[in-house]
Amino acid sequence: MTEISLFSAFVMGLIGSGHCLVMCGGIASSLQLAQTKQSPFVTALLYNLGRLGSYMVAGALVAGLGAAFAKQSTLFANILNVLSGVFMLLVGIYVMRLAATLNWLEKAGKWLLWQRLVQLNKYLLPIDSKVKALAYGALWGWLPCGLVYSALTWSLQASSSLSGALTMAAFALGTFPAMLAVGQTAQLLNTFLNHKATRIALGNIFIWYGFYLLIIATDKLVH
């Protein structure tokens, strides 16, 4: 795992955080159920740390699986590289909202996992302690999200479980600025990130990076 790869994952989380605000906007209201003696910022921070923890677990599991198969087949490793490029293209289109290219993936995640996990919500509300805030974030870290699943394709081709976990940690940290913003700052950031021009600009970054990954992956397949 190189520093460039970790930085790329961080940037992916940063420029995709507008989507995070849309997906997780309703959670902000749930966090308001915390007792007034508990700082809203601390609650939000713990929630996001819990989310980061879940991302790291998912990254470690996926990377471990991918590394095991990649060791058996060079072709499989190259296919994973192609898959990463394809998903970057899908994310770009998704962020620009030109087409619901990742909805099928989110629906699959909801059917396979989320409809069962979400039932644990009742044990965590109201969020009246730091432990509950952390656990709530860890639970919602498994919310079906096309952007997260796309980041996991990078973890899938990581060399080890640790590398996969670090990739997803970098991605999660990229979403922190938007997710931790409060009040007027959050409103302004949400407006900016979800403005049509911003979405098109950020979506193009994903698309061009996707083409870059595909060129590299194709070259490896040919040679």
TrEMBL record:
Residues 9-212 form the Urease accessory protein UreH-like transmembrane domain. The keyword Membrane applies. The chain crosses the membrane at residues 6-31, 52-70, 76-100, 133-152, 164-189, 201-218. Keywords: Membrane, Transmembrane, Transmembrane helix. Pfam families: DsbD_2. It comes from the Bacteria. This is Cytochrome biogenesis protein. It comes from Pseudoalteromonas rubra.
